[in-house]
């Protein structure tokens, strides 16, 4: 046999060529010891199966520790017992902070700590070889390892790790040579990883290779999605592998995803298993679809989230005698179940909107920033068509809120089966909806009614949705037709969530509360369309109105008698609302220009009469 001395780089090059030709290279050189190959293979196997072998490794470690402790420190068993008990409690109580998110996982980890601690303490005292300690270690260790071996998430993680370890080779075969996997996450529906592309490769290159990626990773057809990363780096791509269809069954609501109305809330999952997140801050929403398509289900998800946020108040109108919203009654600041109540509720909302708009204008502010002390107001109207039929005068208020409610954070969420012109009361409400969620509809035209003209033609096929809770979502951040499925809240979950959230609901801020008590537009005239506010007439007109009112206020204070003038007189003199008057009086008082003579009576500051 001729001896060949080959350089390593040459070997690697040849091996690569053979692989490309479909031959798995097997290089045997007579200067390599067979036993060293065996050792390498042995350690490779151990590394490959490290997760499955972890219990064995742990048992060996425990045995070694016990031998060492028994020989050197046999009296330490007391300290070890106390330490183990302490650690067991710590794992149970604080385990969630180290990744043990589920209760069962914490119990298992605590059980292991207690078992190992107890065994090591006993072995330290009497010696690890003393019966029955060896049999306890072997049998107890085996039994304790069973949950670890069968744990679904662990096995899925290991399977994905092994698959991704082969990526460099796979990437070379599918034309993405040089790309690297930066991080991977395994979840319920499959796994996803971030790909660092090689120099010169683009996300579009990766997208054109989707079929090859599916084949290389053994995924199902259509089971791989490749997208640019949110940070818009051209040399990175997010790859998602869907192994289980997330929409196959109802998806249980995982709990609220927001703590503030300023955050986007999760309504459900897209087909690729990623969450559907949408913001409702300063946006009106329309949920449509045939009876039984899941509108109320989607409203429940919104309720579950909004009631978890401390900076939003929710009012509800449910003319089906409260059938849909009643379970949330404890979290609703107000609920209307009759046409008359609905009308009053919407009229009050307009008064609040006006009060806030005026306050914003007088402070030179553009929008109402929700906080727990000054919460946003969301009005949920279930089956809007019933409101139109039973309380037509309420539509004027709804229209007003739809047109002017965004900046003062007074918004509508309307659910209706078919938002035709008639069902919407021939108002502009539908055109003002910023977020549109279409569940299944009967006819193509109905998709356009909910989502907007021409949407069906553009691929928004809400008539093809085939299960309750499935939807298409159109919003400023969602402009491509993708199917989502809403989370499902069972009646028990709704009840439990409402009970839990009821304690932490905010109340109306003073500006809004005062505006509601003293509406800018008197209730008698309420059924007429409200006249436009200064805020709606443009900046110049608003400034003029504000400065004229300011002058009138100062003049009224200057002309006030010694005992001061009443708030009612100031309202008459300025034609402004009570909150505006109070706010300006507070400001003038702190600047030293006005004084409160007695309760509700004010005048300007005069040297001779100063109190
Ligand atoms: N996200 C969902 N996942 C699975 N099933 C759902 C989902 N949403 C609703 N469903 C099922 O569909 C049924 C009807 O849903 P829902 O009451 O929400 O429909 P709807 O569109 O509000 O109907 P209606 O207009 O009559 O009030 C529910 O009882 C539930 O079983």
TrEMBL record:
Residues 520-550, 590-611 are annotated as: Disordered. The keyword Isomerase does not apply. GO terms for molecular function: ATP binding; DNA binding. ATP binds at residues 289-296. The chain crosses the membrane at residues 53-71, 77-95, 107-127, 133-150. Residues 273-448 form the FtsK domain. InterPro entries: FtsK/SpoIIIE/SftA (IPR050206), FtsK_dom (IPR002543), P-loop_NTPase (IPR027417). It comes from the Bacteria. Keywords: ATP-binding, Membrane, Nucleotide-binding, Transmembrane, Transmembrane helix. The keyword Membrane applies. This is FtsK domain-containing protein. The lineage of its organism: Bacteria, Bacillati, Actinomycetota, Actinomycetes, Streptosporangiales.
């Amino acid at each position: 046999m001729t001896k060949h001395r080959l350089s390593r780089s040459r070997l690697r090059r040849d091996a690569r060529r053979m692989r490309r030709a479909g031959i798995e290279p097997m290089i045997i050189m007579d200067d390599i010891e067979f036993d060293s190959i065996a050792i390498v293979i042995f350690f490779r196997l151990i590394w490959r199966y490290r997760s499955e072998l972890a219990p064995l490794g742990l048992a060996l470690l425990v045995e070694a520790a016990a031998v060492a402790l028994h020989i050197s420190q046999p009296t330490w068993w007391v300290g070890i017992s106390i330490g183990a008990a302490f650690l067991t409690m710590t794992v149970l109580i604080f385990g969630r902070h180290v990744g043990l998110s589920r209760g069962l996982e914490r119990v298992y980890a605590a059980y292991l700590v207690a078992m190992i601690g107890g065994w090591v303490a006993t072995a330290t005292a009497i010696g690890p070889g003393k019966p029955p300690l060896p049999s306890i270690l072997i049998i107890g260790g085996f039994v304790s390892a069973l949950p670890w071996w069968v744990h679904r998430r662990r096995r899925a993680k290991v399977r994905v790790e092994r698959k991704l370890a082969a990526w460099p080779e796979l990437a070379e075969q599918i034309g993405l040579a040089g790309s690297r996997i930066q991080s991977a996450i395994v979840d319920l529906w499959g796994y996803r990883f971030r790909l660092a592309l090689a120099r010169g490769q683009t996300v579009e290159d990766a997208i054109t290779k989707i079929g090859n990626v599916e084949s290389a990773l053994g995924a199902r057809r259509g089971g791989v999605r490749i997208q640019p990363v949110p940070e818009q780096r051209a040399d990175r791509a997010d790859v998602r592998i869907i192994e289980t269809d997330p929409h196959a069954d109802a998806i249980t609501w995982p709990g609220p995803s927001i703590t503030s109305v300023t955050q986007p809330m999760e309504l459900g999952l897209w087909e690729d298993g990623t969450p559907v997140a949408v913001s409702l801050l300063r946006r009106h929403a329309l949920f449509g679809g045939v009876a039984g398509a899941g509108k109320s289900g989607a409203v429940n998800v919104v309720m579950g989230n909004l009631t978890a946020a401390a900076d939003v108040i929710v009012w509800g109108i449910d003319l089906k005698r409260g059938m849909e919203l009643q379970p949330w009654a404890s979290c609703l600041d107000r609920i209307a179940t009759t046409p008359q109540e609905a009308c009053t509720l919407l009229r009050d909302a307009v008064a609040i909107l006006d009060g806030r708009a005026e306050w914003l204008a007088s402070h030179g502010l553009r929008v109402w920033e929700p906080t727990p002390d000054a919460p946003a107001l969301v009005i949920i109207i279930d089956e809007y068509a019933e409101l139109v039929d039973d309380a037509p005068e309420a539509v004027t208020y709804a229209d007003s809120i739809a047109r002017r409610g965004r900046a003062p954070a007074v918004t509508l969420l309307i659910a209706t089966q078919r938002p035709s012109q008639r069902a919407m009361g021939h108002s502009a409400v539908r055109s003002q909806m910023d977020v549109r969620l279409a569940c299944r509809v009967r006819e193509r035209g109905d998709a356009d009614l909910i989502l907007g003209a021409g949407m069906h033609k553009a691929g928004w096929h809400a008539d093809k949705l085939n299960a309750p809770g499935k939807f298409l979502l159109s919003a400023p951040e969602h402009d491509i037709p993708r199917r989502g499925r809403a989370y499902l809240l069972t009646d028990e979950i709704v009840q439990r969530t409402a009970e839990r959230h009821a304690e932490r609901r905010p109340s109306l801020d003073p500006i809004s509360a005062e505006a509601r008590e003293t509406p800018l537009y008197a209730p008698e005239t309420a059924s007429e369309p409200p006249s436009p506010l200064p805020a709606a007439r443009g900046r110049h007109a608003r400034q003029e109105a504000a400065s004229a009112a300011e002058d009138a206020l100062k003049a009224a204070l200057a002309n006030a008698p010694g005992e001061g003038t009443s708030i009612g007189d100031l309202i008459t003199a300025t034609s402004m609302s009570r909150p505006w008057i109070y706010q300006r009086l507070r400001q003038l008082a702190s600047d030293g220009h006005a004084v409160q003579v007695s309760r509700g009576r004010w005048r300007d500051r005069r040297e001779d009469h100063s109190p």
